Amino acid sequence: MDKKKKKALVIGGATLLLLIGLSIGAGLYMLDFSLRPVNRGKDMEGSMAYMRQTYPHIVPWIDSLTRCQALRDTFITAPDGIRMHAFYVRAPQPTAHTAVIVHGYTDNAIRMFHIGYLYNRSLGYNILLPDLRYAGLTEGNAIQMGWLDRKDVMQWIDAAPHIFGDSIRTVVHGISMGAATTMMLSGETLPDYVRCFVEDCGYTSVWDQFEKELKNLFHLPAFPLLYVTEWICQLQNGWNFHEASALNQIKKCHKPMLFIHGEKDDFVPTRMVYQLYEAKPQPKALWIVPETDHAHSYRNYPEAYTEKVKAFVMPCLSNETEIGN
């Protein structure tokens, strides 16, 4: 081999190594950007101030719970040793009806108190509001985008009878990433007392959501960066963006699900809910909320939202209703 060919091979090899190194560096940055952002979900005081300002009608309820020491904390430990936190509130009157309420990306349990108000104050249910990993008082070194969270919520579901009594009948209600968690959860084998689900503006899969964000925020295609980032996520967290699919999970769910999505949602595009609704076997219902962007359906239409949820959930939680998995 002559010197020119050797030089070309060396340059080509060095260039390849440089590109690989840059891709891995960019992938590490993107994973931190996505799963370890500056996290408002860790700001408990700021979250409470936000809720009081944004949903003033729930403030008397929050203050009453605080005065009566009815807003309580509980902790459980995940199989991998992560200490997980949740708030819970018993119903005003003893009831089997219970809601497990799952928060969204960079949020925490406090930022779901408006949905807690809906179920506890408006409908008279027990409520359980977990902090997902890397949020609130729950440990963890990264957001898990719903995929590992589904197992944590399953553990909270198993804990619910010990908190509220063995005869509970449960709805799981999530918003945004919490909605994706709810749908991912719905494809698992769950206790009979889990009767139905409400998902509000959840995404089809982590891959789809990250691909959309990569294009919108950075004007980049999926290849090669998203593939490299997915590979790093698999190494770091034990899951990848494709397997974290609400769309695949709900195909296995035969319990009732209410789909809610804002008509003008451009963060989790409204088109996603039509794919999800089509994939879900019956029974199901869909509400496209007019003139509403991401995760603001209850804020914009609190009375209509409450009535839609009540009309869907109440028959599912009635003692006479028999629902398969």
Q: What does this entry look like structurally?
A:
It contains twelve helices and eight strands. The protein has helices at 3-35, 44-54, 59-67, 113-122, 149-164, 177-186, 206-218, 225-237, 246-250, 271-279, 297-300, 302-317, and strands spanning 72-77, 83-89, 97-102, 126-130, 169-175, 194-200, 257-262, 284-289. An eight-stranded mixed sheet has the order 1-2-4-3-5-6-7-8, sandwiched between helices. Helix 6 links the parallel strand 5 (169-175) and strand 6.
Query: Would you tell me the overall average pLDDT?
Result: 93
How many angstroms separate the termini? 67 Å
Low-confidence stretches: none
Count of spatially separate domains: 2
Proportion of residues in helical segments? 40-55%
Helix and strand sequence: HHHEEEHEHEHEHHHEHEHH
**Strand numbers in spatial order across the main sheet:** 1-2-4-3-5-6-7-8
Question: What structural category characterises the helix and strand content?
Answer: alpha/beta
Proportion in β-strands:
15-25%
Top CATH class of the largest domain: Alpha Beta
Number of E strands: 8
Backbone CA Rg: 22 Å
The CATH topology of the largest domain is given as Rossmann fold
Largest sheet: 8 strands, mixed
Assigned CATH superfamily of the largest domain: Alpha/Beta hydrolase fold, catalytic domain
CATH-derived architecture of the largest domain:
3-Layer(aba) Sandwich
**Overall 3D form:** globular
Number of helices: 12
Pfam families: Peptidase_S9
GO molecular function, one term: serine-type peptidase activity
Protein name: Peptidase S9 prolyl oligopeptidase catalytic domain-containing protein
InterPro entries: AB_hydrolase_fold, DNA-binding_regulatory, Peptidase_S9_cat
